[in-house]
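Quick one before lunch.
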Amino acid sequence: MDRRTEQMHERGVSATVLVCTNDRTEYAACAAVDGVDVADAVRDWLRERDRYWSEVAVAETSCLGMCSEDGVAVVVQPNDEWFAEVTVGDVPTLMAETFGAAADDTTATEPTTTG
Ligand code: FES
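Model of the FE2/S2 (inorganic) cluster complex:
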């Protein structure tokens, strides 16, 4: 095991967005309600602000325990923010509210993570 916390902090990574893209047929699953598209929208939002993996990591995950036929489960850590039923259209608001109003300023260079 190799603890990399310090290395990631030195890189500036201060938060991780987890997006469920779990696929299954027995129950509601985020893959069936555009999980990958929501993950892409999160990545695009961050890329447009030069924050993708420089400040905010993004990971597609298995089930986060908030399964719904109405949208995707998203968790932001260490902010401890949990969202269910997220659609692609919700992503800009979710990201701006989670990472602060200054996050919408694409010219900002300072980290904007709240929490
Ligand atoms: S399948 Fe996505 S939260 Fe359960």
